[in-house]
Structure prediction request, 474 residues.
Amino acid sequence: MLAKTNLKYESQKLAINYFTVAVVLFGAQLLMGLIAAAQYLFPSFLYGVFDFNISRMVHINAMVVWMLYAMIGSVYYLLPEESGKEVVGLKFGKIAFWVLTLAVTVVVLVYIFVQIGPADMKTIWFINEGREYIEAPRWADIGIVAVVLVFYYNVFATYQKGKKTGILNVLVADLFALAGLYLCGMFFTDNVSIDQYWWWWVIHLWVEATWEVFVGAIAGFALIKIINAKREIVEMWLWIEVLMLFGSGIMGLGHHYFWIGTPEYWWEIGALFSSLEPVPLVAMFVHVLYDWGREKGHSDAKGEKSPLRNSPAMAWLALNAIGNFLGAGIWGFFHTLPQVNIYTHGTQFTAAHGHLAFFGAYATILTGMIYIAIQGLVGIERVKMTTKTKLSIAFISLGVLGMTVALTIAGYEQTLVERADLGGGWDAYFIAQNLPWYVQAQGWRFAMGVVTFIGYILLVWDMLTINKAQKEGV
Ligand code: HEM
Ligand code: HEM
Ligand SMILES: [Fe+2]
Prediction:
């Protein structure tokens, strides 16, 4: 994949670095998930050596970090093409990449070597901040802020100099909000309610507002590139989605305030606005299909009929539309009303939603962007799917969907037995976890995790060889 480069811009070469680390971390995420899933089945597996709290933490941290890497990679890839200018300040951009990668490595090594210890300020500064998904210690937080400042400066200065397309207007504003929100997870208060309150500003306002808008922007770029979608149409939808996503997503934050000691008026606010969140997700789904259908039979500037320049990327984009709608829209809506959440809160149902939503809304489209970057890197006009592309898509989607169904069944059992029948509490929790439906569901989750992992291996193999396969004819 890295043999020779046909990329026009230096920043696109930097993007390849970011994408490479992202793919490696995706693999690490899956391996950690498999260890955590095995520990559900055999609680003594690696006990005292590599405990569940560590495998789980590294699993979800690796996920967040690989997605952020792939997002930065996507921006460095599309920015010069959209703006028509090489990205400004790349020398610092390259240094920032190595600083960030070194910092991530050190943080993970510390997680692995220092698994237990006191909960004091030294721990917060050097080992672990204890906030799920963003556990990185404070020294790393500050480093991340410095790296992001360099990145944002590069993006903003390039934007100022070049062509200001609708996609870039949205992207540049969105990245500012996305980066700024990280600050909400950096300070410590010893009141748990206040701490959780701000923590959700990062988690929810990332995945249900700023990341979704980001995805809208890069989907727009990708559709124009792959199928020649009309820019005015893509951008019009993008603005509508921005409006709706921010509208419902910001107040939808209330669905995380049911349980943390915030005032009761959040029940109604959370119920109403979070229920509206699926609307823009449906719009996004329709958007992709509509654009695609509309283009069929039309010719592009070169007189080419129905161009489909990168079918692996297009397949991942279509999966994104479906996955986002199902994982975030449907599985999210299931448990967002307080009347339902009173039973489902914190069960495996939440984990089912978390898996399908993160995969459907983000893993898919970022993988698609990586295929677009590979196409640029090797300089081929048209990329067709290979058998490995198809198999990897089949295994990964089947695996993640299978895990989601298994976890939904486990969550359903917990809801009925632990919550509705036994009324919750310590004993109820353990009784529900030991009943056959729950145990079998955890077995299926592990099996489906293995299927996902096989798909990942095929995916990496495909990414490394798709160039050669095109030349030999597929
Ligand atoms: C791509 C977008 C989304 C992603 C990646 C996502 C991911 C997640 C994750 C990982 C959690 C668990 C958080 C934890 O560890 O406590 C969660 C919780 C939750 N999500 Fe989402 N979500 C998304 C969109 C949505 C939408 C659109 C809705 C509603 C329509 C929704 C409703 C909820 C609710 C109600 C909870 C709390 C569950 C509980 O009480 O245990 N999510 N989400
Ligand atoms: C090999 C495949 C995978 C396996 C075996 C696996 C397993 C696990 C396990 C055991 C947990 C801990 C659940 C708990 O605390 O109850 C977990 C959490 C989580 N995983 Fe995975 N996972 C896999 C792939 C993925 C993928 C592909 C994604 C998304 C792209 C993902 C996202 C998450 C999230 C967001 C959580 C936290 C959920 C929550 O807090 O509710 N995982 N996973
Ligand atoms: Fe949320």
